[in-house]
């Protein structure tokens, strides 16, 4: 067996390990963050379960840390108290980004982790089966329920050779994205192997599994080996180590080889993470901003290299450099060993340990500004500046370029390569993680006025005749559907307010039009809903009356979120039909319930005067959810 199969086998509670069929997995650990957590805990409360049933559940506060109003602080108080009551550990604001902290302090090889954030696969860096999901699925897992996925294919990335100085883990995942594209991982787990694995430390492996989310993969995983053991030991958790490796005769559905020694510094150009080219080929373009940090590249190793490059230099005139350490552990270690002083002396603007600019919480670039970021996503508008040009690069490329003022290949810029080792002991201080109250203790849950009830759907009607209120193209991200950023993110627990911004990047008139039409259908291209796990990209369309999304294909987490909300994700049987439908066409589905159950839906385009068919390939549970108008309705027994 390969690693993926071993991890699935040891957690299988439903179905059989037959590719393409639905399986249920036992979830050992969960994590939430504050932008998806409020909704997840409201849903957990709605289930009426007293205490979480997982081995460890942790709530992190890392996204909504700009507090320009009462909203975020209210949400944090709610999450803090609801966690205390129900058995969830609470990582306070300032303690760091969920994925970085979870890797350092809580993740365990061989365990499953479900997180209400798409970059949860970071845990694959230590041999976990770590997956992103919508908040409702995480709530179910906290209540002891299984998590359902399609039994994935396994793609092996065979790493050979060793990285050259100034070429790093970010360049590895950018190369994999260049080869496989943002759709290339759909339905698959990306498993890393080969002798090259041995030259990569845990933080480097975690950079790679983290950004595997951009491949659309179910998750990514590395073996758990001596390097994992050394990392856990340095975190004071050697007892959490177990070895996990693929059998010698393990088989894979596909194999690709990446020769680490042949890689050069790469960059993902605007506006997609797979729009990858060599830094050298892109040329020395003038830059306005450099942002170093995010759950992809904010480890001790990353920031020590950055500090060494910056030491004794000055950030170029006209360039703004920000550095956000991934965790309190990283931040404190940099402060204690003096590296922080090298960073600030060079002129960097040091931000708190949080997502920050990655999710548009401040630091939007200037108009048409060029920003180099060590993050994982460069979708249009995500930075907060619609015409901002975001390039995703390694910390080494970012730091060197911040000094030169132009995009610079760090391998031949005359800098000395900083040899940084993973320390034998990290600085351990969990004083910012609050333990839950004992079971049965009286805890008052605080709820601010920003927390509004979440919308519920109705049973699927038998006849639906509505307009195609919006038609969009390929690779629509959840950042298009439900943007984030500093103005909108504070309203994650207020769906009516959020709804005003739905599809703002594509068509700001959409919310008003959808409301005026009493809802309707969305027509999408390939890979609809890629990117984040935010279930708000389903809850808001539900609030606006969307009944189905008809697309050429869907991203995994978003499709699951739509089903959980009772919105049908339907796939064109003949992709060419996508072209034939125009925005505002009236579409009619008759016998919707019966057709849905049959797995195939014929739709009449009333305006165009033709029929077309859609695949409705759902498991029994998914079918029930759609008929009932979503998971919560199904649990309540509505049908
Ligand atoms: C992201 O990187 O897009 C986020 C913000 O972390 C999201 C979660 C969210 O929208 O709250 C994700 O990756 O799932
Ligand atoms: Fe936060 Fe960015 Fe990571 Fe999402 S991708 S969890 S916003 S740092």
Walkthrough of the structure:
- It is a single chain.
- The protein is of the alpha/beta class and 639 residues long.
- The chain contains 22 helices and 27 strands.
- It has a seven-stranded mixed barrel with strand order 21-22-23-24-27-26-25, surrounded by four helices. The chain has a six-stranded mixed sheet with strand order 7-6-3-4-5-20, sandwiched between helices.
- β10, α7 and β11 form a beta-alpha-beta unit.
- It is globular, with a radius of gyration of 23 Å.
- The model has no long low-confidence stretch (mean pLDDT 97).
- Bound molecules: alpha-methylisocitric acid (MIC) and iron/sulfur cluster.
- Iron/sulfur cluster is lined by residues 63, 97, 117, 119, 294-295, 355, 358-359, 375-376.
Poorly predicted regions are none
CATH homologous superfamily (4th level) name of the largest domain: Aconitase, domain 3
Q: Helix- and strand-based class? A: alpha/beta
With strands numbered from the N-terminus, the spatial order across the biggest sheet is 21-22-23-24-27-26-25
């Amino acid at each position: 067996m390969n690693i993926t199969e071993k991890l699935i086998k040891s957690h299988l509670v439903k179905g059989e390990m037959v590719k393409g069929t639905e399986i249920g997995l036992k979830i050992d650990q969960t994590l939430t963050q504050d932008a998806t957590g409020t909704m997840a805990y409201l849903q957990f409360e709605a289930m009426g379960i007293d205490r979480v049933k997982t081995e460890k559940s942790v709530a992190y506060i890392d996204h909504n840390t700009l507090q320009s109003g009462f909203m975020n602080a209210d949400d944090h108080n709610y999450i803090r108290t609801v966690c205390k009551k129900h058995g969830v550990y609470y990582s306070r604001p300032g303690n760091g980004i969920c994925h970085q902290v979870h890797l350092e302090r809580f993740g365990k090889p061989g365990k499953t982790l479900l997180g209400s954030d798409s970059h949860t696969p970071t845990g694959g860096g230590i041999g976990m089966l770590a997956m992103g999901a919508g908040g409702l699925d995480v709530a179910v897992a906290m209540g002891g329920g299984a998590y359902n996925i399609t039994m994935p294919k396994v793609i092996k990335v065979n790493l050979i050779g060793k990285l050259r100085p100034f070429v790093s883990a970010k360049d590895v995942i950018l190369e994999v994205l260049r080869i496989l594209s943002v759709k290339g991982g759909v339905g698959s787990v990306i498993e890393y192997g080969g002798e090259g694995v041995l030259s990569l430390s845990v933080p480097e492996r975690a950079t790679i599994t983290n950004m595997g989310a951009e491949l659309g993969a179910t998750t990514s995983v590395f073996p758990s080996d001596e390097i994992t053991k050394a990392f856990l030991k340095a975190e004071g958790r050697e007892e959490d180590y177990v070895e996990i490796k693929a059998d010698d005769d393990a088989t894979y559905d596909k194999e690709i080889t990446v020769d680490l020694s042949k890689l050069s510094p790469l960059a993902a150009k605007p506006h997609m993470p797979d729009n990858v080219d060599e830094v050298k080929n892109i040329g020395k373009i003038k830059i306005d901003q450099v942002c170093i940090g995010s759950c992809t590249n904010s480890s001790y190793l990353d920031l020590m290299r950055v500090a060494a490059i910056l030491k004794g230099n000055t950030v170029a005139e006209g360039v703004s450099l920000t550095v956000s350490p991934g965790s309190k552990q990283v931040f404190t270690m940099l402060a204690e060993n003096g590296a922080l002083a090298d960073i600030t002396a060079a002129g960097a603007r040091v931000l708190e340990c949080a997502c920050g600019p990655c999710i548009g919480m401040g630091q939007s670039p200037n108009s048409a500004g060029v920003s180099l970021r060590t993050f994982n996503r460069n979708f249009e508008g995500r930075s907060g500046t619609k015409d901002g040009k975001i390039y995703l690069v390694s910390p080494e490329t970012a730091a060197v370029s911040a000094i030169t003022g132009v995009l610079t290949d760090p391998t031949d810029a005359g800098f000395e390569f900083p040899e940084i080792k993973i320390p034998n002991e990290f600085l351990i201080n969990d004083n910012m993680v609050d333990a839950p109250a004992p079971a049965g203790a009286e805890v008052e849950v605080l709820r601010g006025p920003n927390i509004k009830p979440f919308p519920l759907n109705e049973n699927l009607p038998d006849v639906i005749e509505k307009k195609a209120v919006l038609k969009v193209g390929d690779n629509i991200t959840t950042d298009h559907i439900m943007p984030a950023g500093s103005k909108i993110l504070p309203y994650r627990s207020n769906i009516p307010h959020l709804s005003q911004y739905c599809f703002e990047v594509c068509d700001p008139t959409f919310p008003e039009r959808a409301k005026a039409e009493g809802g309707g259908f969305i027509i999408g291209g390939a890979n609809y809903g890629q990117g984040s796990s935010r279930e708000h990209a389903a809850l808001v369309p539900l609030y606006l009356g969307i009944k189905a999304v008809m697309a050429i294909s869907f991203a995994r987490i978003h499709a699951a979120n739509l089903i959980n909300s009772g919105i049908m994700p339907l796939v064109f049987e003949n992709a060419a039909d996508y072209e034939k439908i125009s925005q505002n066409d009236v579409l009619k589905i008759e016998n919707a319930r019966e057709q849905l159950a049959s797995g195939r839906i014929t739709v009449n385009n009333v305006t165009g005067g033709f029929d077309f068919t859609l695949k409705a390939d759902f498991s029994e549970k998914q079918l029930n959810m759609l008929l009932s108008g979503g998971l919560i309705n199904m649990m309540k027994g509505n049908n």
